[in-house]
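<instruction>
Derive structure tokens from the sequence
<data>
Labelled lines for chain and fold
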Amino acid sequence: MILFPPAKINLGLRVLHKREDGYHEIETCMIPIPFFDVLELLKSPDFTFRQTGLSIEGNTGSNLCVRAYELLKSKCGIPPVYMHLRKELPMGAGLGGGSSDAAYVLRGLNDLFELGLSLVELESLASVLGSDCPFFIRNEAQLARGRGELLSRLAIDLKGYYLKLVNPGIHVGTKEAYAGVVFNTQKEALSDVLSAPIEDWKEKLTNDFEVSVFRSHPVLQEIKRNLYAEGAVYAAMSGSGSTMFGIYAFQPKESFGASNYLEKVLAL
């Protein structure tokens, strides 16, 4: 079985307050984008996890894919598998690659062993692994609240637009991003902002992490300015960074040219 876990971007990200459980209350819209890792799952006499492509920090046991397998094994008693993850999505980039991989392990194993778990059950399991993981179970535009696990469908149609991703190779840790964030007090509902024409998003659709992350990494603010200068109708940082993206009404060129930058242009 071959699966293609996608990346996501955030359209707006509000940090509302810190909760009693230590997490932050957020509100954001996440949409899947056509930029993928590759995941292979096969029945096997012994459990094996192989990872190629971009290197992942940490030991195998801490990898979200392995944790997803162990979680489902503990719940459903599934037998061993061979798992191969080809990593194409950069880590610490705000694209949700690790969360997507873990969610697709749950989805794939559910199909491989015909477990019959519903989407709601898979989302519940995914929430144990991480705040962004449940989003990738349905893989559609969704409004996320709470710590990111409270999801509702949102009608967002960006067909006909192009997306440019620019990542300068900076790793922005979640702790670093939250350290300087100012809580959002905007009154207009995020869903109302997103229902306005995309040309109106620039002034109202904000990512609350940008102020603090731009202060530490001014190159990201420079990339955002360049995306707008190039003709993007909307540009922002995805998640807690460090990937910047621009949405265009025309197909832009790859124009940054730095050897350490990841740059992709995708049709939405």
